[in-house]
Amino acid sequence: MPDALPSIALPPGWRLDARDRVGSTNDEARALAVAGAAHGTIVWARRQDAARGRRGRAWSSPEGNLACSAILRPDIPFARAGELTFVVGVALADAVASFGVEPKLKWPNDLQIAGDKLAGILLEAAVAPDRSVDWIVAGTGVNIAHHPQLADYHATDLHAAGARDAAVETVLERYAAALDRRLAEWRADGFDATRAAWLGRAVGLGARIKVRLETETLEGVFEHIDPSGALILRTDTGRHSITAGDVFFGRG
């Protein structure tokens, strides 16, 4: 029999759906959202067996790392759904920073420490008949005790970065509290406040980067993100507004 799952302190109005083992917390949260689960429901599992990242990429999620997915019902036009990627990213960075490390945000949805990937974010959303957001599932995976050894990118975990006191339960609690605060800020002040906070931790801002698109790779200076969250890249041929792509800089 698996050990009992510990209790987690969440902000008022939030609730935890704790599991021992699932295929994907995003899949579980999506099913709950379709069934009408309330805003602020977090699905957390000790272990995921079929975790995934952007574009269907595999994501390593062994026990000892954080895997959770939050159901959000923000009551906004569907065109603004992408803003929540940045809200979640800033909140996750707040939580990680509380352990005494310095996370950076890589556009659009990764956290890094010293250039190494620490965490990833995957948002999935449903549109209502009136073109508003029905629900958003914000999945997060944070390397706490383990990180993968992969050829295509460098990774790290909180313990390896020096945050030896970080545990899954405390990271989850601090992330939920930060997400609650950042959502309240976003509702009150709009995306500009979130955008400013995100840019304050952005990696590669003002530097030359490469952005791999579906059909080409562009190279230029990462100038900023615009009010919709698109990356603005200045190349020799002008400025490009990029809404989806893979960013490369620094080490190969």
What does this protein structure show overall?
The protein is of the alpha+beta class. It folds into two domains: 15-200, 2-Layer Sandwich (BirA Bifunctional Protein, domain 2); 208-248, SH3 type barrels (Roll), CATH 2.30.30.100. The chain is built from four helices and twelve strands; from the N terminus they run E-H-E-E-H-E-E-E-E-H-H-E-E-E-E-E. It has helices spanning 25-34, 83-97, 168-189, 191-200; strands spanning 15-22, 41-48, 66-72, 104-106, 110-113, 116-127, 133-142, 208-212, 217-225, 231-235, 238-242, 246-248. The strands form two sheets. A seven-stranded mixed sheet has the order 1-2-3-7-6-5-4, sandwiched between helices. A hairpin with a 4-residue loop joins strand 8 (208-212) and strand 9 (217-225). Helix 2 (83-97) packs across helix 3, helix 2 crosses helix 4 (191-200) and helix 3 packs across helix 4. It is globular and about 55 Å long. The mean pLDDT is 91.
